[in-house]
Amino acid sequence: MVCGKKNVFTMWMNRKTGSVFLKTLNHVLNVLKFSTNVCTQLPCKPGPSRPPWSLLFFGTDQFAVESLKVLTSCRNPSKGIVEKLEVVSLPGDLPVRRFAQQNQLTLHNWPPHDLEGQFDVGVVVSFGRLIHGGLIDKFPLWVSIIND
User: InterPro entries in the record, alphabetically (predicted)?
Assistant: First the structure.
């Protein structure tokens, strides 16, 4: 159970990649929720040590939408682990773009610009583009990558 939503992952349970996906996303959310030091690199860049976090999500396809749904359900200003959630996607009629628009999430075109100091964590799920080191360095805590 993540963010108090018991049935969020139900549709993934019967898929071939479901088990690995669930474990990975659950791990990412648990680290964000409970860790006071989520840095994996030394030296640690300054950033908030406790949630809620500001997240920038990178994705394109339906696999990515399922992760974005979970993160969207974790937004709650008073007790959530996600304070701010924005989305980066590629141009075109893509599932992630449609979901972001339908759910009034701020949508950035690829490549995003002017991110310095705006986000704590980047989450990349089935994005289809190489995220260069300069962009990764914009996130004080880390970037989590989940591919299908």
Answer: Formyl_transf_N_sf
